[in-house]
């Protein structure tokens, strides 16, 4: 039995997939997003280890509140770093008739074995993925996350090829991702996909700044303010295809 490295849980998640969700935040992430509000999940080390059955037993205490669309969502950190645990968790969830969702940046995705076979098996047990597109430009992506986006975009393309439903999320950060060229290029990429159910723009905020300070990590976006409502709408219009590039 594989144990998962757990960060925390949220019993009544309302923005983490359809309906009301029991949200499981796993510990560990390889990316270093400058705007991360869960920086305390980066370090994979934890004393909070759980197995699939005990976690789902806890989740099912709230099943009456899920309605027809609710279920569990596994987030992080980066949940796909713990793919063996996810496989056990979702296998057990499906035995119990529980809807499954993964909130991920797809950073660990690779078509190399043995990971790819595990990923394909996991997708057979996954109803929905909420996928972050940090920024489409590869150079800016490296600056923003300290990681390439080549395999991430390949992972999204693979999910489209198997017709796995996804929601796309994009955090709008002034001076970093709030750039019309990047947004139009993101829209062009989205148009190549046939599995996107929803596109969401999330305005940058600094609510997690105190976590950086408490961990002694320099917070480099102190001077950045949240985007204006106009810029958020602009991003939504571009990514939704309501605004067409003129040049």
Question: What does this protein structure show overall?
Answer:
By secondary structure, the chain is an alpha/beta fold. The chain has a single domain (4-239), classed as TIM Barrel (Alpha-Beta Barrel), CATH 3.20.20.70. The protein is 32% helix and 20% strand. The chain is built from eight helices and eight strands. It has helices at residues 52-59, 83-95, 115-123, 138-145, 150-161, 180-190, 209-214, 229-239, and strands spanning 4-13, 21-26, 49-50, 71-75, 99-104, 128-132, 166-172, 196-203. α1 crosses α2 (83-95) and α2 packs parallel to α3 (115-123). The longest helix is centred in the middle third of the chain and has 13 residues, at 83-95. The protein is globular and about 55 Å long.
The arrangement of helices and strands along the chain is: EEEHEHEHEHHEHEHH
Q: What is the CATH-assigned architecture? A: Alpha-Beta Barrel
- How much helix, percentage-wise, in residues? 25-40%
Count the beta strands. 8
Structural class: alpha/beta
Arithmetic mean pLDDT:
96
Distance between the termini: 56 Å
In the predicted model, the low-confidence regions spanning at least 5 consecutive residues are none
Number of helices: 8
Strand content: 15-25%
- Placed side by side, the strands forming the largest sheet appear as 3-1-2-4-5-6-7-8
How many individual domains?
1
Largest sheet: 8 strands, mixed
The rough form would be described as globular
* CATH T-level topology: TIM Barrel
For the CA atoms, what is the radius of gyration?
18 Å
């Amino acid at each position: 039995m594989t144990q998962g490295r757990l960060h925390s849980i949220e019993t009544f998640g309302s923005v983490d997939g359809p309906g009301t969700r029991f949200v499981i935040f796993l510990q560990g992430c390889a990316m270093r997003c400058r705007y991360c509000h869960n920086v305390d999940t980066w370090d994979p080390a934890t004393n909070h280890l759980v197995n699939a059955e005990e976690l789902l037993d806890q989740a099912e205490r709230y099943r009456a509140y899920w309605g027809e669309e609710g279920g569990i969502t596994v987030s992080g950190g980066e949940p796909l770093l713990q793919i063996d645990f996810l496989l056990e968790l979702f296998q057990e969830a499906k035995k119990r008739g529980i809807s499954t969702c993964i909130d991920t940046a797809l950073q660990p995705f690779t078509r190399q074995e043995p990971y790819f076979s595990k990923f394909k098996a996991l997708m057979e047990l996954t109803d929905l993925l909420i996928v972050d597109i940090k920024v489409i430009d590869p150079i800016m992506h490296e600056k923003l996350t300290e990681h390439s986006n080549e395999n991430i975009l390949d992972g999204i393309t693979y999910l489209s090829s198997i017709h796995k439903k996804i929601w796309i999320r994009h955090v709008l950060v002034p001076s970093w991702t709030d750039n019309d060229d990047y947004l139009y290029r993101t829209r062009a990429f989205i148009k190549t996909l046939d599995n996107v159910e929803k596109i969401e723009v999330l305005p940058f905020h600094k609510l997690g700044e105190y976590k950086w300070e408490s961990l002694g990590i320099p917070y480099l976006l102190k001077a950045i303010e949240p985007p204006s409502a106009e810029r958020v709408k602009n991003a939504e219009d571009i990514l939704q295809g309501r605004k067409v590039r003129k040049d």
